[in-house]
Amino acid sequence: MERVEREDGKTPPALRDRPELADHLVYIWNAFQIVSTDRPSGMGLAPIPFSAIDRFARRYAIACVDEFERLRRLIGEMDRALLDDLAAEQERDRAARKGRR
After folding, report:
1. CB 41 within 8 A of CB 24
2. Span 51-100, pLDDT tens digits
3. For residues 3 and 58, what is the distance between their CA atoms, to the nearest angstrom?
4. What top-level branch of life does the organism fall under (predicted)?
5. How far apart are CA 82 and CA 76, in angstroms?
6. pLDDT tens sequence across 15-48
7. Which 3 state secondary structure label does DSSP give 68?
8. Are 67 and 27 in contact (CB under 8 A)?
9. Residue 48: burial class (beta carbons within 10 Å; 0-12, 13-18, 19+)
10. CA–CA separation, 91 and 65 (whole Å)
11. Which residues have a Cβ under 8 Å from the Cβ of 78 and sit 6 or more positions away?
12. Could you tell me the pTM of the whole model?
């Protein structure tokens, strides 16, 4: 989106209206982006598997159970929000297509 902004001189709404992320949550956001690439492939976007979060934690030496559970819980909540948003978007698209028939 930043490239689009540079190319046409207009800030896309998603970039302009994006929420500010607190410094202490940047690590969680980055972890979410990394483990998101480990989703199973199939007919649609599947939830991030526990094993992906566990491998991330092992790779980055998160040995404390409480730290791991916090990471797992936050990534899980972010993942559910993403999947819910995508499902709602797909439902709106289906309804729009049905209305055009």
Report:
1. no
2. 999 999 999 999 999 999 999 999 999 999 999 999 999 899 888 888 77
3. 35
4. Bacteria
5. 10
6. 778 788 899 999 999 999 999 999 998 888 999 9
7. helix
8. no
9. buried
10. 38
11. 28, 29, 32
12. 0.78
* Distances 15 to 2, 9, 93 between C-alpha atoms, Å: 8, 13, 23
> Which tokens go with 93?
């698209």
Tokens of 47: 């939830």
- Cβ atoms 48, 5 nearer than 8 A: no
Q: Give, in order, the Cα–Cα distances in Å from 29 to each of 25, 74, 86.
A: 6, 9, 18
Structure tokens at 13: 């709404």
